[in-house]
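Thread amino acids onto this structure.
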């Protein structure tokens, strides 16, 4: 997804201040992770948000090892 953002920023007429990411198919919340980690993203639209586990999204963001360390 980040590669898609990089490519989109090279397109003529692209407004770099209005980058959004959206999904309707991935229930693991990938766009939530990308939206949280990438400062270029201004808006996240996810149809899977009600089905997303915050702990899984956090594991994807910081890694399983770091996640376990944050629990203690």
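Threaded sequence (72 positions):
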């Amino acid at each position: 997804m980040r590669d898609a953002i990089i490519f989109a920023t090279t397109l003529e007429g692209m407004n770099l201040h209005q980058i959004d990411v959206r999904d309707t198919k991935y229930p693991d919340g990938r766009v939530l992770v990308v939206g949280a980690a990438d400062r270029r993203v201004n808006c996240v639209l996810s149809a899977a948000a009600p089905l997303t586990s915050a702990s899984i999204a956090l594991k994807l963001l910081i890694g399983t090892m770091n996640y376990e360390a944050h629990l203690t």
